[in-house]
Amino acid sequence: MKIMVVGGGGREHAIIKSLKKNKDVEEIFALPGNGGIAKDATCVNIGAKDIEGIARFAKENNIDFAVVAPDDPLVLGAVDELKKLGIPCFGPEKKAAIIEGSKVFSKNLMKKYGIPTAQYEVFDNAADALKYLETAPIPTVIKADGLALGKGVIIAMTREEAYDAVHSMMEDKVFGDSGNNIVIEEFLEGPEVSVLSFTDGKTVVPMISSMDHKRACDNDEGLNTGGMGTIAPNPYYTKEIAEECMEKIFLPTIDAMNKEGRTFSGCLYFGLMLTKAGPKVIEYNCRFGDPETQVVLPLLESDLFTVMKAVSEEKLAETEVKFSEGAACCVVMASNGYPAKYETGFEITLPEKYEEHEEVYVAGAKLCDGKLLTAGGRVLGAVAKSDDLKTAIKKAYALTEKINYANAYCRKDIGKKALAVYNKEN
Ligand code: AMP
Ligand code: GLY
């Protein structure tokens, strides 16, 4: 079985390592992959947004199954092109990926089908948005409609910041056409939970819950990043809340997409906020989260390829999806300065041998003359799992100590908030 995984970050490395566990998987190609992924897959220099290149490669190399992981190719229709060639895929078609590709679409979907989310207004011109903001409650949240490299959300703590956000998105076009329309929404408060789910459009199976740490510095200070670390399971996500989410959010979303003629198949990511008024959707992603995947997949006991194939064949209901009882922690090792200015090109030394509970998923690195060099803001994720969260965190940090490069930086408090919740309960 020849598999192709589109993407080249830590999430894709985690997916590839999980797929490799299946005996039928003979060869994995990563498009484009990265210097660290090269140990586990054949990296092919085709960018994740090069839909034509991806389709051509799949056809010429008789790919048996494709996994499209990042948002861009999904929103651009990579799965549609691959399916036209008769290649089975894990991932939604373009018409379903819009659930992440357009915030206006997803907000209107939630409103139409009564799925709990923040109150909002949509604007297609700056003048109306600015007028609305004159009397809007502050803080407020301004979101660019389209994809914006995870930077299209501004939490405005003052009216001035809100005006600035509208100017930069709608007039200065800092996110290009993604800012042609914007959503201005109610500021919500409460713990955040990420729930990734497998769905084939008929059945939805939530994976183990997780918690991201988005800010660059300890105690959730500093700039927003792509994610500095994750833990799973998320202690705020109790069994009762999980049941409520299934009933009020997960099933209604799958139903809504079916009713709109946009059946979603793949991994649907629910970004939730547990407000005093109940769980609400902050965002949908049409794909696995990064770095959530790096803690979720190590806890998956069932075989990933079997589950992905079942999703693509609409047989998820008949397939077991089991997670271990344990916990996992991913500490992202970054280049000092990220997400602002940072240097790259430093040699990375990884441990010679790994313990069974350890994994390193490489995100930003390239191979140069046989050496692995840093090549991005987020360099890798050091992941450990254990029976309990406290040990998983300790082991993940112990693993970071065994990894070296010149300007390594990581947060020192990944999982601290989650541990405090457990400690309060016990
Ligand atoms: P996103 O880029 O959509 O993942 O949003 C980034 C972050 O902004 C989320 O993880 C939340 O922490 C925050 N956020 C988004 N929408 C809201 C909201 N309505 N109220 C409060 N925080 C929000
Ligand atoms: N960790 C958030 C995301 O993947 O969008």
What does this structure look like?
This protein has 426 residues and is of the alpha+beta class. It is built from 13 helices and 23 strands. Strands 12, 15, 18, 19, 22 and 23 form a six-stranded antiparallel beta sheet that branches. Strands 3-2-1-4-5 form a five-stranded parallel beta sheet, with helices on both faces. Strands 6-9-7-8 form a four-stranded antiparallel beta sheet, with helices on both faces. The chain is globular. The relative contact order is 0.13. The model has no long low-confidence stretch (mean pLDDT 97). Glycine binds next to loops.
Question: In summary, what is this structure?
Answer:
The protein has helices at residues 10-19, 51-60, 71-76, 78-84, 94-101, 103-112, 126-133, 159-171, 239-259, 293-296, 304-312, 389-401, 416-425; strands at residues 2-7, 27-32, 42-43, 65-68, 89-90, 120-123, 140-144, 153-156, 182-186, 192-199, 204-206, 211-212, 215-217, 221-224, 229-232, 266-275, 278-285, 327-335, 358-362, 365-368, 371-374, 378-386, 408-409.
